[in-house]
Amino acid sequence: MSSDEVKFRDPLHKNKLMTFASLYEPTKSLKTGKEKEKIIRANRLVLQRLLTAYEAGRSINLPEILKHELLPVPVALAEMNGNLRTGSKAILVQAITEGISCPSSLSSVDLQNATLIIDGQALVLAIGKPTGLVTFGDLANTFVQAVLNAGAMFNRIDVVFDRYYEVSIKSATRTRRSQGTRPIRRIIEHANVPLPSNWSNFISLSENKADLARFLSQQLIVQAPNSKVIVAAGGFSSEEMVESSRSDLDTEPLEARHEEADTRIVLHCVENHTDKIVVQCRDTDVIALLLGHYHRMTCTQLWFKTGTAKKRQYIPIHEIVDHMPYNSDTRECIPAFHALTGSDTTSYIAGYSKKSAWKTFQTYHHLLENLGKGALTAETTQNAEQFICKLYNLTNVSNTNEARVVLFNKSRSPESLPPTSDALHFHIQRAHYQTTIWRQAHLAFPVIPNPEPMGWKVEGMKVKPILMSLSPVPESCQEIIACKCKTGCKTLRCRCKMSNLNCTRDCTCSSGNELCQNHFF
After folding, report:
1. What is the tally of structural domains in the chain?
2. Which of 291, 326, 401, 450 has the greatest number of CB atoms lying within 10 Å of its CB?
3. Structural domain of 223
4. What angle (nearest 5°) sits at the alpha carbon of residue 293, between those of residues 117 and 313?
5. Are 243 and 217 in contact (CB under 8 A)?
6. pTM for the whole thing?
7. Tens-digit pLDDT profile for residues 101-138
């Protein structure tokens, strides 16, 4: 009897069947160590093939080869699993605020007639699900009290929320942030609806966040004290709806269509005519937007409140503007810089932090003056590509394909090469799209183009980035092809012979039993 024969009384093998739980399994990203190992292994394979091809007498056109990515993804812009590369936005704050005093409180500033603008969703995430709360009514009371505590010294408080579009370029960001959760839908019909036992699972679903924003916006207006002016926007069922606790306040200029609270905050700053404004938000994107739109605001002091209760920081946007040696046209390029060098919806450049990129911007900001303005032209694309070349400290090249050849010849590791022009152009398209949105943050009804021709593709209800159109080196470059012949490479079935190339030591025929008839060396 065979040893692997199954007997009647043997235990049944447990199959891993698909269940409803499988639908919510997160997409696992590659660990950093394994990712680097995979990159190094793939790069060594390409380099080995290049060397053996040269040894076999093949003509190697390095500039043509390096027009293609060495790996299945452009590693300067994306992770090996295809996700856009991420980075630290906080470093940009450090670079921008260098030499600027950022106090931990505003006790010395008169805020009696000032306005506080709060990112509602950021506050929801900061509060979480406090111990002891039972219903959504309890949570609303806690939220309203947190808003009133933050605005105790202010006459007016604006609270703005994100919108959650089904088709959005933020799909990948939301998916990444919800990894490890199993979203469960819960409709908030009234204040007595019990809070979910697992808050992370609840808050990871866009429908739940939209429902919660609506409920909290309503409660803010209902519970507003007579001594405060409370304005809520973005969170109601109708996207354009704005409610105020004071009936005589004109809210029409704030009725808007904005997906992000980030841009809605800018609109509220522009349409607010108090002398001092404080923005409470954790997102660094907003600092870039406030700097870019500051010249449109009438306030004399604009503060950005960030950090935690134990490590609070107030960043004086007005002082940064005064400190900068730029005019308003140049400051308008800061959002373009932020989008091109990495944001929530665009790729960070591998090996280059926001701090080093900011140094490049200080000298070459003029190259980004048209990014995000109107249709993306060939000149704007070329200028943005030039900016990336400057980032790699190369001044005598016209595009990243040339930069790749220069750096490759300097024995730079392949994974530290800039992206190909092909991959970079898709990145520039995405940066242009995002900057187009940011440049219109001061408008109630911005004109937003279709994302599909701008470096994105729509698959089902998800918007995914297009990483490149040219196939990578192993698939596209004839110079490094290798056959898998075992019968001497006598016919045109041999890939090398069919391409009129000599076989190399990388070909399978080099270790076969029959002597290769296509002369590898």
Report:
1. 2
2. 291
3. 90-326
4. 45
5. yes
6. 0.84
7. 999 999 999 998 999 999 999 999 999 999 999 999 99
The residue length of the chain stands at 521
422 found inside a domain: yes
Point out the residues of the chain with pLDDT beneath 70: 1-57, 59, 171-181, 411-414, 474-479, 511-514, 520-521
Ranges of H-type helices in 448-498:
473-476, 495-498
DSSP string, 358-381: HHHHHHHGGGGTTTTSSS--HHHH
Block residue for tokens 């929320």: 161
Q: Are residues 228 and 357 in the same domain?
A: no
Q: What b/e string do you get for 376-404 counting C-beta neighbours within 10 Å, with b at 16 or more?
A: beeebbbbbbbbbbbbbebeebebbbbbb
- For the beta sheet containing 276-280, the strands, ordered from the edge strand earlier in sequence to the opposite edge, are 242-244, 229-233, 156-160, 115-119, 276-280, 301-307, 312-316
- The answer on 452 and 435 residing in a single domain is yes
Same structural domain, 163 and 205: yes
Q: What does the CA dihedral 133, 134, 137, 138 come to, rounded to 10 degrees?
A: -20
Report the half-sphere exposure of 47 (CA within 13 A, side-chain side). 13
What does the alpha-carbon distance between residue 328 and residue 93 come to, in Å, rounded to a whole number? 19
Residues 338 and 322 in one domain: no
- Residue 307's pLDDT is 85
Residue 94 is classified by DSSP as: H
CA distances from 291 to 105, 311, 334, 337, 360 (A): 21, 23, 7, 12, 18
Q: What is the DSSP letter of 70?
A: S
Instruction: Give residue-wise pLDDT tens across range 473-517.
Output: 755 566 677 788 887 888 888 888 887 888 877 788 876 556 788
- Using DSSP, state whether 460 is helix, strand or coil: coil
